[in-house]
Amino acid sequence: MSTEEMISVDYEIFGRVQGVFFRKYTQAEGKKLGLVGWVRNTEAGTVQGQLQGPSNKVRQMQDWLKSTGSPKSQIIKAEFKNEKNVKSLDHSTFKIVRP
User: Fold this and answer.
1) In what order do the strands lie in the sheet with 74-85?
2) Of 3, 66, 74, 75, which has the maximum CB count within 10 A?
3) Residue span of the signal peptide, if any (predicted)?
């Protein structure tokens, strides 16, 4: 039995994060870490989404979203909320949601 707990967390990233391939890089990083979830641009100029997977991998992704992002992005702030333990994943992959 795996002792790894699965968590879900919502995120929103502020700064220069649209028009700099942020969603594409976020999707690639999420898949690389074995996470599922989604990412989308908002009308407010931010990027938001949800991460789900093993807690240690979600933590790595949160650090990436806070400090790395896509090469041309400038991250001012990363907010995470609604963190909770989940027994099963709501998503089968990591997808870019388009408006």
Assistant:
1) 74-85, 6-16, 47-54, 36-41, 94-96
2) 75
3) none
